[in-house]
């Protein structure tokens, strides 16, 4: 009996001596770095609005303690909104268990990762093309302990996309999304907005536009846009940080006045966040917006 009690006591002492975190997960980020998180992530700093919205979609809104300058502060009330180039001291003052950013942030602040990673895991995940959505969402979900929720959200996203395609099949109108008025740039094939457009019955009418490797936008130019005018039934002009002038500036630009869709009034403004931001939280809203535009197009 005494021997048995001694064994139990030793087992209890061994358990008490175990480190605070008894498990870990590792993912490969988009800089090719192995990022390991030990134990449950309770405090997250997100330096990119799409990461923030996807974290909210995965059910960890209450764990987000720091958000980017471009985030909607009402989405995560109580989280500290950080400047465009936050100092490592500011980030670490929030005592995060995980920092999530995109490679653009590391380009703007080349030393930031090395300044942080000795204190907190830092994952660099870039905005995914639609083909890269599964990898992106699963890695994000794995890091925050929500892999099952990530799988469920992916299934839901693919389901509503397929339902939208089915509903709009046979009623398509060739469209173009103007990402930036000045250079008449549009979305590249396979990107988030191009897939939303296809599923909503507004497939991109202009194909084969040269695109820089890895770029989400392609430069049509005013001449290319005018040349494609007969194929373009609907023009979507996004408004947001990439194109602050939106529809008003597009219609004021006399270069585009000869386009058939402009003359017919088939030009519509869309919120950059709803159409171009790769956000599970906004997916249904983006599909509804584009589908309603297709219904109302002349």
Give the SSE layout:
Layout: H1 2-17, E1 24-28, E2 34-38, E3 44-46, H2 49-57, E4 64-67, E5 80-81, H3 88-92, E6 98-101, H4 103-108, H5 112-116, E7 122-124, H6 133-143, H7 147-168, E8 175-178, E9 185-187, H8 192-199, E10 217-219, H9 221-227, E11 234-239, H10 246-252, H11 260-264, E12 267-271, H12 272-275, H13 283-296
Parallel strand pairs: 3-4, 3-6, 4-5, 6-7, 8-11, 11-12
Antiparallel strand pairs: 1-2, 9-10
Helix pairs in contact: 6-7, 7-13
- What's the total helix number? 13
Number of structural domains: 2
Task: Give the averaged pLDDT, no decimals.
Answer: 91
Helix content: 25-40%
Describe this structure in words.
- The protein is of the alpha/beta class and 298 residues long.
- The chain folds into two domains: 21-152, Nitrogenase molybdenum iron protein domain (Rossmann fold), CATH 3.40.50.1980; 171-296, Nitrogenase molybdenum iron protein domain (Rossmann fold, 3-Layer(aba) Sandwich).
- Helix content is 40%, strand content 16%.
- The protein is built from 13 helices and twelve strands.
- It has a five-stranded parallel β-sheet.
- The longest helix has 22 residues, at 147-168.
- The chain is globular.
- The mean pLDDT is 91.
